[in-house]
TrEMBL record:
It comes from Mytilus coruscus (Sea mussel). It comes from the Eukaryota. This is C2H2-type domain-containing protein.
Amino acid sequence: MGPKKTFEDIISETTIDDIEEPDATKYIHLLKDKIVIDQFPLKIKIIITSEFKTPIAFDRIESHYSNPAKVVLAQNNLSKFYDDLIDKFKAWVDQFQERGSGFDFNGIKSVQVKLYKYEYQRASSYIPLQFKSKNIINIQNKNDNKCFLWSILAYLYPVVKNKQRVTNYKEYEDEISMRGIEYPVAKEDIPKVEKQNNLIINVFALKDQTNKQTLDPIYVSNKESEKCYVVDLLYIENNGNAHYCLIKDLDSFMCDNNGHKQFTCRNCIQGFQREETLEKHKKYVMITNLVEP
């Protein structure tokens, strides 16, 4: 059994019942404009109250569809969340109608939306990966909480053999200033590490711990400088524990199943075949962010 929700866990709870649209897909698309979300990551729970009626006697009943609370890591994951909601809700409606009750779907009456806080665990000691990749260095720090530090040092001071061993990076430990930062390193402390060490650090997580194609950004640096080293980290979780790994080359890591390298936007993980196309995309994203209220 998971931890019980407290009032402090709930960001907001809203019931929406003023959308006049009989088509379920269109209804949920209209619903998106009604749900205000201004912080990420979070968990979203949706409860949909629908009306069913018999085609002859016009008897009416209400039934409720409820999805488990889903983690949404960033703004650009919302479209996928709503697409999945549409697919699962329509499958639920089909299943309801196939039970032989004689009731047909007559529309959505209301939707209850619950938003919950989602807190990342502080990443600490070694967790094995659930997939294989030559582009990940997973430091085996079984006796300390410094996976964040060792992963950065693995990027700055690469070795040829036994890249996963902490002993390869011990001699460089003082090269990174961690002044005022506690281990294990919390996400909110990353900007301080960047500032103290002239680094650009980006952190990504997997929605499915077994599938690299489910990568999502959870911290993308707002620093821009050609003089800074850019370090990409992978954040993984398992049974309440968390761990940072080094992504040696994000573009190679995100290559397709045929091994074709892509140029990856760190803000949205969209891949492009040409670097010039990526640069145009980044400029568009920058302009879009500037004009948004």
